[in-house]
């Protein structure tokens, strides 16, 4: 065995040279890895072997370029194209042996091998689009040459990790080899290449698959049209499409590569990719809790109890059944329980690619009950009952009496005080908040609320469990509304004030939609129902909501709310709402004023950032990036703007936000009072990103 460098070895297996990479955690293409590959291929090309296999140690094949190197000054090292040229021009067959994931630059390297073999569990893809990028090492030109234009469009704009079996059917993998026997399979394949004198396939020289799309611009036009909604606001999907167009229309491979390079650099230096790369690490950092070490022993969660079979309880239960954990769902009444279970079944049956056998298996893991005593053998119990402190206290008193020692008692409250809830139990160390977002089987975010006495292993178990059920967890401390709803209330307040000053609901919604949110606050209220928490008997017609609900304008479900809706639920501005608003303004004796889009945006967003600073000031979030994780995953903040705290830095940092808050405070009062920490950060010239709570 020859040690090429600290991450690369070259070994000889009979007449085959094997280059092995070992650069944990994911064999990303750091300068060291590129150097190792370059030198490894150089040595293998010069040896008397007959073929070369590239394989990786650890959990995965190369998972891409090293994202942490982007934007940092480069060390002198071999470039990726140097490595790729060395592979493609090798005088003997090069075989890439793939397990885990071959992603981004990793797949681009594999595409420069003459052949690819993979184990069935492997996945391949070009996920750069999720980082606001495009494959910048020839992937945009090679992939369509292998899988065809339409498949390449889909793969590159979705970033999907394609399972090896599908990849084989697309021609991306040449042979599937037995699971756990990758090296043997790759060596056998290499020897077959030699024995059969198989050609040294250079993807860059084969244009056959591109021919089908030549002179057919409608392929691209239709793809753009079909996905317009999904791509709205993002720069990267369009740049990816343009590169595939260039592959089809350029006179040569190199001409296409030049287009790729130019568009790649454009994205790389733009703010969207900076935001999306930041966000990639933000999500992973959120799982790390400074005083809860990674090796904290976990509590075993073999069975879960959920109290409440409504929309929330049902959605929560599905998450656990999906990963094979049995759930007991307890309701008060049989009909509510039956309805809840029927809804879960319907959700499974209607989900994309639903498989009846899988549905049955998951349903068989769900047991309905009317008796809370059935929680006795559960390891985790989550209550999803009505949001009232007296009800929660009653529930936790009962749970304390019923549940076994060591069980985790969780509340799905979205704003109530976890410490107060925990105080009615004899085991506050076992109590935690697990705030799921609706629909709980779909939404990615889990706000984990740490009470004053919550034990570290309860926190560690909750964070790990979140990952297991496919959620992104962020830890928050106890305060009204935690991170997400606490900041949202700032935006809601300003949105309501704005429409009483002269902006219309559709003006506010349009500005926030154009900013990148899926919908504005008023469209959202119409969707959720204006009558949530509204009691007819108590209505005095004093608020706009009273007036709308009294007129049976309760949202989309009644065909009208802030907006009017047609039979297809298309919204249009409502004269009724406009008149009602004007009547309210007239009562105040003030005149409505013209409010600019800029003011709408700043008044909705800046107080949120200020509140984020307060949350950090009070130590209710660990770091600014956790706040961004909450907002991107739970509230539709556009990921290409990174999250509210990242965005604050992007537009000028604490100094700029402070200046605006002061300006608004001078004319509109203390809703805009800057956080003390905001003043401090601005004075010290620091960024929000520097903040740790
Ligand atoms: C690219 O290739 C551009 C090219 O076109 C070339 C242009 C010239 N770099 O996610 P995990 C770290 S762009 C650096 O928790 P999993 C990650 O931060 C790239 N670090 O594990 C974490 O660190 P820590 C295209 C990376 O098993 C640890 O590895 N490729 C990278 O749940 C474990 O990660 C991608 O976009 C990286 N590329 O999932 C793939 N990847 O432990 C991005 C991971 O300190 N990666 N880390 O927190 C992934 O999708 C997942 O990490 C993967 C593993 C599926 C591989």
TrEMBL record:
Q: Which GO terms describe its biological process?
A: fatty acid beta-oxidation
Provide this UniProt record's keywords sorted from A to Z. Fatty acid metabolism, Isomerase, Lipid degradation, Lipid metabolism, Lyase, Multifunctional enzyme, NAD, Oxidoreductase, Peroxisome
Say if the entry is tagged with keyword NAD. Answer: yes
Cell compartments where the protein resides: Peroxisome
Q: In which pathway does it act?
A: Lipid metabolism; fatty acid beta-oxidation
Record SUPFAM superfamilies: 6-phosphogluconate dehydrogenase C-terminal domain-like, ClpP/crotonase, NAD(P)-binding Rossmann-fold domains
The family database entries (Pfam families) matched by this protein are listed as:
3HCDH (PF00725), 3HCDH_N (PF02737), ECH_1 (PF00378)
Chief location? other
Boundaries of every 3-hydroxyacyl-CoA dehydrogenase NAD binding domain copy: 303-473
Q: Where is the 3-hydroxyacyl-CoA dehydrogenase C-terminal domain?
A: 481-565, 600-686
Catalytic activities: a (3S)-3-hydroxyacyl-CoA + NAD(+) = a 3-oxoacyl-CoA + NADH + H(+)
- State the source organism's domain of life: Bacteria
Lineage, uppermost ranks: Bacteria, Pseudomonadati, Pseudomonadota, Alphaproteobacteria, Caulobacterales
Q: Which family does it belong to?
A: In the N-terminal section; belongs to the enoyl-CoA hydratase/isomerase family.
For molecular function, the Gene Ontology terms on record are: (3S)-3-hydroxyacyl-CoA dehydrogenase (NAD+) activity; enoyl-CoA hydratase activity; isomerase activity; NAD+ binding
Name of the protein described by the UniProt record: 3-hydroxyacyl-CoA dehydrogenase
Q: How does it assemble?
A: Monomer.
Q: Which PANTHER family match?
A: 3-HYDROXYACYL-COA DEHYROGENASE, PEROXISOMAL BIFUNCTIONAL ENZYME
